[in-house]
Structure formats: C-alpha cells, structure tokens
Amino acid sequence: MKYIKRELERKFMQMNSFFKVILVTGARQVGKTTMLRHLAEGTDRTYVSLDDLMARELAQTDPALFLQTYKPPILIDEVQHAPQLFEHIKLMCDNSEETGQFWLIGSQQYNTMKYVRETLAGIIGILELYCLSQREKNGILFDDPLNFSFENLKERQSVIPPNDITEVFEHIWRGGMPQVQNADEEMWQEYYSSYVDTYLMRDVAELGGVTNSAKFMKLLKTCAALTAEQLNYSTLATATDISEPTAKDWIRILEGLGIIFLLQPYSNKELKRLVKTPKLYFCDTGLCAYLSMWLTRDTLMNGAASGHYFENYVITELIKNFAYGKTKANIYYYRDSNAKEIDVFLESDGFIHPLEIKKSASPDRKEVRKYELLDKALIPRGNGGIVCMCDKPLPIDEKNSFIPSNLI
C-alpha cells in the first residue's frame, strides 16, 4: 500500500530537534508505527516492538539490559507494555544532551500518560496522531494556519477541487483508518468487525477491567447512535442496563483509547446560564458508521443521521487541523439554558472564532446573527462563519463567510 504523507510529520521532526524523547500516542491502527518507521528510513535508528513477548519480558524485568541491547537512537513501539523503561530512559537522557534519541509509540494513551508525567516531565514531547484527515487522503497539506478570513479561505480554495457531497460522504463513511482506504464494502465491514473484536474489546478488558463485553458493546453502539449529541449518562445507562457510574467509567475508557472525543461546552463569567454537558463525537466516523450499520456511503448520505455525521466530520477535521498545525486552539461548543447553541467556539490568539455547521450547500446567512452575543459579552470575536457544503467560499459580512467543509 502506498504511503500517505501525514500532517504530523512536520511537527514531529521539529520536536525531534528540541526534545530528547518524543512520544506519539493515538488509537490503534491510525498509522503511528507506519509514520515513524517511514521517518526512520535511511537512518541507524533501531526499531523494537514490545508486542514481541521476548523483548517485552526483557524490558519489564531488566530495563537496563534492554537499553544496552537496543541502543539509542531507538524507536520503541507499544511502550505502554513496559513502563519500567521510563526511569532508565530518564537517566540516559540526564547524561546526554542529544535530542531525538528516543522515539516512543503508545497505543493506550489513558495508561501511558500516567507514567510519562511521573518520570519524563521536562524532557519529553507528546503528540497525538489521529486517523487520516480528508486533506491527507487528498495529498493536500497547507503551510499557512487556518484563520477563517476570506483571504485565507480563498488561498486554500485555489489548490483544492470544489466541494462535492459524494466525496465528503465517501470520506465520512469510509473513515480514516489507513488499512480500509482501498477496501470494498465487504472488506470494510470485515475490517471494522475485526477492529472491534481484536483490538478494542481486548484493550477495554486489559485497561478498564470490563468483564461484561456484551453490555460494553451495547454502550458502544448506543454512543454511535448518539454521535454529535449532548452526552447524557442517564440515557446511556438505561439503554445499556448499567449504572450511571459504570457508564461514566466506560466513557472515560473509550475517550482514553482515542475512540471518542468529548467536546466541552464553553464557559465564561460574562456569559450566564451556560450548560455544562459535553457533546460526544467519534474520532473515526467509519467506525461510528459501522457500529450503526450504515453499510454503504449512499445509505449514510441519504439517511436520517447524515447531518450528525457531517457535524462529527467537521469537528474531527478541526481537531486534526489544530493538533498538527503551527497554531494551537481550544475547541468548544456554546449552549445556554435557553437552548441557544453555536456549534463551534474556537479559541485562538485571544479571539473566539464562532462556527455553525450545516450540511446544506446554501444555509441561511441569518445563522451568524447569534454570534453577536459575543459582542454583548465583550468577548473578542475573530473571523468565523458557516461550515457547509457550498463549493467555494463566499463572504457573508466582514467577519463571516460560507466555508466549504473541505477547506478545513
């Protein structure tokens, strides 16, 4: 299979020149090992995977001997299996000024991060790789950060084909796992079935001690049915026949494994009566579609849930954009007790960039009027608009535009 260039490569190589240790986390099968082995090609970097039981046992029982056997520069895969290594890595880093000596890959972010924070603080850079973005699939990577100005959007449009609903929903339905990009519908189903049974349920059992796999699977499918909605633990518990505390524990496990993403509501002392409930999204829309049995692109595109999947897609594309880009951003949604809602509040450089998400190619421009609540609360408002299926960017007013979804 042809290698797909990842947006994270740029940031990873910059951090390689700055940090002594770099850890790449993310859900299983998103391409962490493929990316780092590709970057290591042509170098003398040693690769070792702790999925190899002999290497794992050595790392766990005699980490000093392990690091004598596999000398840096080194790439250690599935490092969460041997947290005993971290103290020895720290000692080696303390005795050397060289950067980029240790590349680490960890699938279970939930578990790995605990040990990393305890032992490698200050010498490690941590990055998260997500499944493929639409930009990565199309081989179009932007140098300039996304700032939602009309000029910025026009520059992006100049190198991207016009937005197309079937292409967008092909990306949404197929998902971003590298292995399914050329799969037919039958193999797509078999892949995700195997992914759930082989990786997800095994990790859940190891990580969270979940013993009732049938109920956990029911919770997972319920989550898929409720994607892009506010998270209601009572609804999840009732649908799955478990207690609310158990539902909360299982959601934390799914979030830690990089299966779901919880979008937090915006909070600000100037804005009163705001909700405190997060919204639930899947990190991979292909997995979400499989769990809800949307087995073809067209049935998903024309189905009742298509608007929710389109919103999920936009949110995850924004997350990837700012995780990999040069500028950081905090992403929230806004909703108050009067049910007034704005889909995205993107906070960057001291400004809030408000965005609505609509599957329509010609949404109502009046949607942007609710952004005025920011002005009333004296919150600095940056460029924003409506992310939709229009084929090219169009200005709405001096701060807002119709934004083709494939430009983000």
Structural account:
The protein has 408 residues and is α/β, with parallel strands linked by helices. The chain folds into 2 domains: 8-128, Rossmann fold; 134-407, no CATH class. The chain has 17 helices and 14 strands. It has helices spanning 8-16, 32-40, 53-61, 63-69, 85-94, 109-119, 134-138, 150-157, 165-174, 185-208, 213-225, 233-240, 244-256, 285-291, 297-301, 306-324, 372-376, and strands at residues 21-25, 46-49, 74-77, 102-106, 124-128, 229-230, 260-263, 279-282, 330-335, 341-348, 351-357, 384-388, 394-395, 400-404. It has a 6-stranded mixed β-sheet, with helices on one face. A hairpin with a 4-residue loop joins strand 13 (394-395) and strand 14. The two termini are 26 Å apart. The model has no long low-confidence stretch (mean pLDDT 93).
